[in-house]
Structure formats: structure tokens, C-alpha cells
């Protein structure tokens, strides 16, 4: 299933401080998740990151033009480092550079304040 033009989930209720890892990417044409293993790898990464102690959740969105932003939330720098050091994650990064992305950027930030709004049904 493609996530083109979709937004997935809102992470809320996390008491600061915590860390946000912002991954912004531009997919190569044809790397839409239906071939080349992109979709399977994305699912695997979501499963593996959830095993990291201190992982708090993620939010992701991608527009029809291929630009995507995923924000992963972690309790502390140790959790961020554990994810960065995970072998399968490093392999996916290499494959992303070789096959799936025109480019990407990663920003790691410490969140000091957090608030939001969600309409009740």
C-alpha cells in the first residue's frame, strides 16, 4: 500500500524532555513501495524501532510529489544512539542511498515543550 498523500498518526501525551529525529526524504521515481523492497523495509524498520527501549512513537506524511517527513520520538540520547547503531537500520540506510532516495536529511532535536489539540468525536 502506498502512503502517497497520507498522514499517519499523531503522537501526543509525551512528557518533555525527549528527542525528535526528523527524517525528510525525496523518493526516486518508481520507489513507491510497490517494488524494490521499499515497503517491506519500511514495515521492518517500524517493527525494529519499536523494540528499542526509550522509543516513544512516530508520525509520518508524504505528499504526491514524493517528499516525505517522518518524525521518530525517543526518551533520551541513548535510545537515539541505539536506533542509529542497529545493523538492520544501517543496512536500510545504505539501500536507501543506493536505490530509493534522491536525497534526505536527518535532524535530531531535544524537545523542551510540547502541546497539541485533537478534536473529540
TrEMBL record:
Documented EC number(s): 1.14.-.-
Top-level taxon of origin: Bacteria
Keyword field: Monooxygenase, Oxidoreductase
Residue ranges occupied by any ABM domain in the UniProt entry: 44-94
Entry-linked Gene3D superfamilies: 3.30.70.100
SUPFAM superfamilies: Dimeric alpha+beta barrel (SSF54909)
GO terms of molecular function: monooxygenase activity
Descriptive protein name: Antibiotic biosynthesis monooxygenase family protein
UniProt source species: Streptomyces mauvecolor
Amino acid at each position: 500500500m502506498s502512503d502517497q498523500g497520507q498522514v499517519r498518526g499523531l503522537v501526543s501525551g509525551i512528557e518533555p524532555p525527549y528527542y525528535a529525529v526528523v527524517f525528510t526524504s525525496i523518493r526516486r521515481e518508481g520507489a513507491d513501495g510497490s517494488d524494490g523492497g521499499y515497503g517491506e523495509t519500511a514495515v521492518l524498520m517500524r517493527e525494529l524501532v519499536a523494540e528499542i527501549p526509550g522509543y516513544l512513537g512516530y508520525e509520518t506524511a508524504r505528499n504526491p510529489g514524493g517528499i516525505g517527513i517522518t518524525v521518530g520520538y525517543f526518551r533520551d540520547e541513548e535510545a537515539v544512539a541505539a536506533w542509529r547503531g542497529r545493523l538492520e537500520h544501517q543496512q536500510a540506510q545504505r539501500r536507501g542511498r543506493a536505490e530509493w532516495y534522491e536525497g534526505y536529511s536527518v535532524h535530531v532535536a531535544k524537545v523542551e515543550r510540547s502541546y497539541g489539540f485533537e478534536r473529540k468525536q
